[in-house]
Amino acid sequence: MSLITHAEIVARRKLAPLPPGWIVSAWKPSGRDGILVCGGVPRAVPLWGSLSGKLFEGEPQSVLVSYEDIRAESRRFEAATGKCGDCLGSGRATTQERRGRTPRQCACPRCAGTRCAPVTHPEQAHAG
Ligand SMILES: [Zn+2]
Questions:
Q1: DSSP readout, 33-45?
Q2: Count of the separate structural domains present in the chain
Q3: What is the span of the domain harbouring residue 110?
Q4: Biggest CA pair distance of the chain
Q5: Is residue 15, in this structure, part of any structural domain at all?
Q6: What spacing in Å lies between the alpha carbon of 59 and ligand 1's midpoint?
Q7: Which tens digits make up the pLDDT trace of 48-107?
Q8: Are residues 2 and 53 in the same domain?
Q9: Distance CA 77, CA 82 (A)
Q10: Cα 117 to Cα 83: distance, rounded to the nearest angstrom
C-alpha cells in the first residue's frame, strides 16, 4: 500500500502553496485519524568530522492527512491513470516481516499483480 505516496500528494495540496524544494521529512501514523506528514525545505549543513546532514529552514510544517483523504486520492489516481492505486501500477507490494528486517516483494494484494485498477463499484463508495 503506497499510503505515504498518496498522503504526500494530499499534504502538498493542503499546505499549498509550498516553497520550491519542499520535501517530506517525516511521517507517522496518528492513531485512527490518519497520517501526520511533516516537511520543510532542507538546507545542507556541514557538521563535525565526516558527518553531514540536512537542517530544515524554520519550523517544519506538519499536516494531518486522514485515511479518508488518502482513499479519495487513491481513487482519484486510479480514475485518472487506470493504474492500481495501491501499488501505483507497479504490480508489487512490499511486506515487512515482523522478525526480519528485509522487506520482501510480493504481488500487490489489491490488483493481484495485474497493475490495473480493479473494477470499483461506485454505489458502495458512499455506503459508509
Ligand atoms: Zn496493485
A1: TEEEEEEE-EEEE
A2: 2
A3: 82-120
A4: 60
A5: yes
A6: 36
A7: 666 566 777 777 789 999 999 999 999 999 999 999 999 999 999 987 777 777 778 899
A8: yes
A9: 8
A10: 5
Q: Is 7 exposed, middle or buried (0-12, 13-18, 19+ CB in 10 A)?
A: buried
Identify whether 99 is part of a domain: yes
Ligand 1 centroid, distance to 85 Cα (angstroms) = 6
- CA 72 – CA 10 distance, rounded (Å): 9
Q: Using an 8 Å Cβ cutoff, are 86 and 73 in contact?
A: no
Strand order in the sheet with 34-40: 23-30, 34-40, 61-66
The three cell numbers of residue 45 are: 549543513
**Nearest-5° Cα angle at 66, 59 to 12:** 45
d(CA 117, ligand 1 centre) in Å: 7
Would the pTM of this model clear 0.85, i.e. be above it? no
52 with 89, same domain: the answer is no
Domain identity same for 18 and 74: yes
Vertex 98: Cα angle to 97 and 103 (nearest 5):
30
